[in-house]
């Protein structure tokens, strides 16, 4: 399994960025696919997740209404996206995509629930 995230960069407050993550090596139909982030000196925190093949999404309170997660599927390849709008300096972090086979609703926000991780992509929001 490989996950490759890209799309980070430097943006001003209230700007937008779109992150992408290419996930390959599995048919991810029944997997949770998620975005986490980690700011310097802080623990990795949940941002958003696509709930298996339901089409439903879940968000951290800090990003709900500003961020949107989505996915598109192909055989053995899934593209996961995170559209980030109205960015704030506190959104500055390294963003990671992750996939988990055994994630359930109650564990979706826990980094340890996910089996595979992509390399992070840096997002910096200037004030």
Can you offer a commentary on this structure?
The chain has 127 residues and is mainly beta. It has strands at 2-6, 9-12, 17-24, 32-38, 45-50, 57-59, 67-74, 77-84, 93-100, 116-117, 121-126. The strands form 2 sheets. Strands 2, 4, 5, 6, 9, 10 and 11 form a 7-stranded mixed β-sheet that branches. Strands 1-3-8-7 form a 4-stranded antiparallel β-sheet, with no helix packed on it. A hairpin with a 6-residue loop joins strand 5 (45-50) and strand 6 (57-59). The model has no long low-confidence stretch (mean pLDDT 94).
Layout of SSEs?
Blueprint: E1 2-6, E2 9-12, E3 17-24, E4 32-38, E5 45-50, E6 57-59, E7 67-74, E8 77-84, E9 93-100, E10 116-117, E11 121-126
Parallel strand pairs: 2-11
Antiparallel strand pairs: 1-3, 3-8, 4-5, 4-9, 5-6, 7-8, 9-10, 9-11
Structural class, from helix and strand content? Answer: mainly beta
Helix count, DSSP H or I runs of 4 or more residues: 0
Q: Which range best describes the helical content: under 10%, 10-25%, 25-40%, 40-55%, 55-70% or over 70%?
A: under 10%
The overall strand count is 11
Give the radius of gyration. Answer: 13 Å
Sheet having the most strands: 7 strands, mixed
Overall body shape: globular
SSE pattern, N- to C-terminal: EEEEEEEEEEE
Question: What's the rounded overall pLDDT mean?
Answer: 94
First-last Cα distance: 37 Å
Which regions have little confidence, pLDDT < 50, spanning 5+ residues? none
Strand % is over 45%
